């Protein structure tokens, strides 16, 4: 009798090679040969006894008493139509298909349990960034590099964050009080000489916070500039950061031992853009970091680190790598007719050499491949679409928690919303607005500049103020808009308040006290204020772009057979009329459909915007990064 023997062990190579022979295995009661091989024989050797169909040799497992035989079942013509599983225990009985299916299901269940118990590989992760909260922060970049590393460390990874040690000679410098000098000095060869760089270190919340120290980081202002504009030596300052970050895993014995060469670097924005270039051009040709990988995280593509081409020699890179950073401005962007438009673009070099590329939302990952959102790099990013992904940022749910926020007048939760109206009354009282709990209160928090769509708000306010609403704004930026806010407040004393500047407690109170948060941004890589708003039951009305489109679902009262869905409103195109239409629709829902409004609030509050959720997606990309070989040429 022709038979197929199944023994405990691994799949024999000879069997896989023989799979091309013309054998037809038909399923019996949905339990076929393919399924049996796929499930039961993941850890089994398949061997054939003497076969009339020919060609296959025979072999036996040493542990024959544990083996089974698949006996051929034939039709009236003698053709094989399937197999029966025959026990080799000595009784000669044939197991029923139901018994086999049960045994396979049990083994599959056990296998799945083992897979679930298996934790993802623990990695040595090195974040490189110009800012990391709470040590330095000007926006979302600081939030990401101050929160995500802590979550990844809590998930078992060894995590280092490398950023500059900014000293502004003010009280804010106390954030570095616990950072100790490691007494490790290195020479960074760039800008025509050897620059002396040292390191400070603080171990906090499971993360190694490493600060690169150099006199160029010691000056008043913010990480990038001061009241007079951007610092003229930013290329020098962030070139130092990148060189030092590449050396840190090799020379810093943190916790008694170094991170070593097998690291995963996360280079954030152009300030860290030289890291993947250095790995490919300076280290891997000499066998160093050959097993390391580098992810480029783009938080804002508008900033690319572009400088004149003559400055390439300052980077400390081999001359043959100029092409990776080469950049030529289009004719319309050149200063004059004789200008060749030649430049170096640090972010472009990072896009070319990074092993994978991430943006801070899926929508932004698509936008950067378009002419409108690519800022001249859309074609390059489109060519790397296979390694381009987007992961929405998380928020610190302990800091932004309406049930425990120390900055707001009353606490509330998704189960008890009664405290929100108290927060609204307290905000109206604090800002000197008429106390009207039932009047829709609209808020805006953000920079007063073109990107945030502040010009649309300016054009729309006269028309919006004709409605029975109140409007509150918090922000600073363009002096033109700051003055406009002051003038508008004097014109609409009972309806409008503008707070010039930024104040953390006030931002919390506006987020908790308003009914609607307006975000008409022209582009928004991710956006955090809409996430804060939903966490606090404040309904966002946003322009449908980037991360705003990803995170805010437009309210639909007719979804799923009349069951509401949605967490706010999005509008498009970006115009005053479409924005006003969305605002008025939200206001009408607030006034006339209280149950629907409460549903919108609760769905937003229940949304999972935690960094733990984002970290899971990051870990998946980390795995993908190690599948392919690193960039070496």
Explained architecture:
- 33% of the residues lie in helices and 20% in strands.
- It has 633 residues and is an alpha/beta fold.
- It has a 9-stranded mixed β-sheet, sandwiched between helices. A 6-stranded parallel β-sheet has the order 21-20-19-22-23-24, with helices on both faces. The protein has a 4-stranded antiparallel β-sheet with strand order 2-1-3-4, with no helix packed on it.
- The longest helix is centred in the N-terminal third of the chain and has 21 residues, at 97-117.
Keywords:
20% strand; alpha/beta; 633 residues; nine-stranded mixed beta sheet; globular; six-stranded parallel beta sheet; disordered N terminus
Global mean pLDDT: 84
Q: How large is the radius of gyration?
A: 31 Å
Query: For the largest beta sheet, what order do the strands appear in spatially?
Result: 7-8-9-6-5-12-13-17-18
Helix content: 25-40%
Can you summarize the main beta sheet? 9 strands, mixed
Which blocks of ≥5 consecutive residues have pLDDT under 50?
1-67, 89-105, 111-118
Give the helix tally: 20
Estimated structural class: alpha/beta
Report, as a whole number of angstroms, the end-to-end distance.
Answer: 59 Å
**What is the total tally of β strands?**
24
Shape: globular
Percent strand equals 15-25%
